[in-house]
Design a protein that fits this description.
The protein starts with 6 loop residues before the first strand and ends in a 7-residue tail after the last strand. The protein has a domain at about 20-45 and about 60-120: Hotdog Thioesterase (Thiol Ester Dehydrase, Chain A), CATH 3.10.129. About 15% of the residues lie in helices and about 50% in strands. The radius of gyration is 15 Å and the shape is globular. The protein is of the alpha+beta class and about 130 residues long. It has two helices and six strands, in the order ββααββββ.
Length: about 130
């Protein structure tokens, strides 16, 4: 879980059950940025994906897995010292067998950094025998 280490939630805005926003603040002092990259820290794409999953779990009020990534476009890099506050804009496009197809746009002001389209599904623990 990256929440409270890499980022903290500053604000949640809900338009309706299908569209909502999370504003987060990136912690530029986390170990992730020391390794990615020491001379010019940037936010890893895998971390953006995990943040989106964690925020979607909060919205859906249940554990979720990413089942399929339809597209993921990195338009600009995110430097936490330049853009410490980001907005994750979620739009649930459809639900197939209770698996929401979600569009996520990550930005700051008028700048867009990443666009994603993916399917989520409930995280069901495996039964170990």
């Amino acid at each position: 879980m990256l929440r409270d280490d890499l980022y903290e939630i500053k604000e949640i805005r809900t338009i309706n059950e299908f569209e909502f926003f999370y504003e987060i603040h990136l912690n530029k002092d986390t170990d992730i940025y020391r390794g990615h990259f020491p001379s010019r820290p940037i936010t890893p794409g895998a971390c953006l994906l995990e943040i989106a999953r964690e925020l979607m779990e909060i919205h859906e009020k249940q554990p979720l897995d990413i089942r399929q990534i339809k597209s993921m476009k990195f338009l600009n890099i995110i430097e936490p010292s330049v853009h410490p506050n980001l907005v994750f804009h979620f739009i649930i496009k459809e639900r197939l067998e209770d698996q929401p197809k979600v569009m996520v746009e990550i930005g700051a002001g008028s700048e867009v950094f990443t666009k994603m389209s993916m399917f989520f599904a409930e995280n069901v623990p495996c039964n170990e025998s």
